[in-house]
Each structure stands twice: as C-alpha cells, then as structure tokens.
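@channel sequence for tomorrow's demo:
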Amino acid sequence: MFEQMGAKVRAKRLLPSGCSFHITLRCNGRQFLIAKALRRDLLLAVLKKAKQKFAVRVYGLCLMANHLHLLLKPTDAKDLPRLMHWFAWYSAMALNRLSGRCGHFWEAKYFSTPIHPKDHLFFYDLLKLIAMALLQA
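structure tokens (generated this afternoon):
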C-alpha cells in the first residue's frame, strides 16, 4: 500500500545483542540550537535521567552546536529504540520550553551504527574521534 503511494519505507534498524552503538542526532534544519552552554547543560541532565530510566552505559558524548554524538551500550540492544525515542522526545520538549520554541527540535530519527564487541579497536578509534570532534570544531 505504501509503495503505491510513493512513500519511503525505512529499513529496519540493526540491533545485534551485545553491541555498543554510535548514535548521531542532528538539530532540525541543521540549525545551531545547542550552541549555548545552558542548553548543553540541559542535554546532560536529560542524558543523566535517561541513564536512570534505562539500563545503558554511556562511553562517550560530544555535544556540537547542531548535533550530538553518543557512544553507548544498552544492557539489551532491543531497548535502544525506546531509549532514543524517550531521549529525543524529552530533550526536545525541555529544550523547546527553555528557548520558547515549538515544533520539531531534532531533524530526523537518530542514526545508529552497531559496534560488535570483537571490534574493540574500532570502538576505541571511534571514542577518540568523538573526543577529537570538539577540538576540531
């Protein structure tokens, strides 16, 4: 039915168990909506709340002016969509309220790349890249 209407169907997200995930989430319209320190502090508070609400380890975080990078590992990979849905919803609501905005805060669904436990070198390289992103901005 959707194909007849010309709608794109999103591919199912890969959620292999035991994996860590590199997450990217970008501000709507690539606007610099998280450039201010107060907004970044709010995002850190939301992430802390997400860690309390969901069983997840956060290994790396980089908050840029218009997007963020996360390196995390949920206890159960199947919980990643619920975690990210909650994080995007709650942070958008809080950030919109803080800045007097309404409407979409995040551009689209988050991007996720699974990282298998055996790919520990890739994991550490990615962690370094996330840390270096702030220095290069």
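heads up for whoever presents: The domain at 17-136 is CATH 3.30.70.1290 (Alpha-Beta Plaits).
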